[in-house]
Amino acid sequence: MTVRANGTVDAKERILTVALALFGERGVAATSLREVARVAGVAPGLVVHHFGGKEGLHGCVDDHVVALFRQALDSAPLTGSTAEVAAARDEAITRMFEAHPEAIDYLRRVVVTPDPGDVGLARKLIAETIVQTRMLREHGIARSRAPVEEQAVAVLVGQLGHRLLQPTLSRLWTIAGADSAVPTVTVTLHGRRE
User: Fold this and answer.
1) Is 131 exposed, middle or buried (0-12, 13-18, 19+ CB in 10 A)?
2) Are the CB atoms for 23 and 31 separated by under 8 Å?
3) Where are the domains positioned within the chain?
4) How far is Cα 186 from Cα 165, in angstroms, rounded to an integer?
5) Contacts for 79-84: CB closer than 8 Å, 24+ residues apart
6) Directed axis angle between helix 54-74 and helix 44-51, to 10°?
7) At what angle do helices 33-40 and 54-74 cross, to 10 degrees?
8) Alpha-helical runs (H) found in the chain
9) 9: which strand partners?
10) Is it the case that residue 61 has pLDDT exceeding 60?
């Protein structure tokens, strides 16, 4: 969050953070601008002033999540073996989600169980991952004969898959009354060109 010199958190940033959390918890359709404003501690008119309405706020929340991804990935060094770079990038994504757990809740809502026609965040994440994959290829790190779009989707599913599915497995494990520790979800794509 942006903190002003007097120590207060910027209202626009606060609205964005609250919207991300509420959209992840309830879904975009089930969250009103009035509720966002109330939880953020601002007047509803301020939400409209900054974001132009719910559609604008939704788009800005999507952009914010993509920016979190970009910042996390940009923080990882591009030195070392392909495996070391991939591990550093995965660790950067893990740190980002630890710092912003509401982002994974939102991703689960809009990527796994989206509202009809809601492809905004998925489209933006794929576009960003294509950019990142091209950059890795230029650095000789992400070699593949697969089209960059296919490789980008595989990378994105690899980064998100277990994070999106692990809570479901944990819930089912608990419901079943299983005695052993919850297994860890791993995601592997088959049938891809390399």
Assistant:
1) middle
2) yes
3) 11-176
4) 9
5) 82/141, 82/142, 82/143
6) 60
7) 60
8) 11-26, 33-40, 44-51, 54-74, 82-99, 101-107, 120-138, 148-176
9) 3
10) yes
| Residue in this structure with the two tokens 């893990």, named with its chain if needed | 94
**pTM here?**
0.86
3-state secondary structure of 112: helix
- CA 127: distance to chain centroid? 13
- 11-176 belongs to which CATH class? mainly alpha
Residues written for the chain: 194
Tokens of 81: 């073996």
Average pLDDT of the segment spanning 117-139? 90
- CB-count burial class (<10 Å; 0-12, 13-18, 19+) for 16: buried
Question: Please, are residues 72 and 50 in contact by the beta-carbon 8 Å criterion?
Answer: no
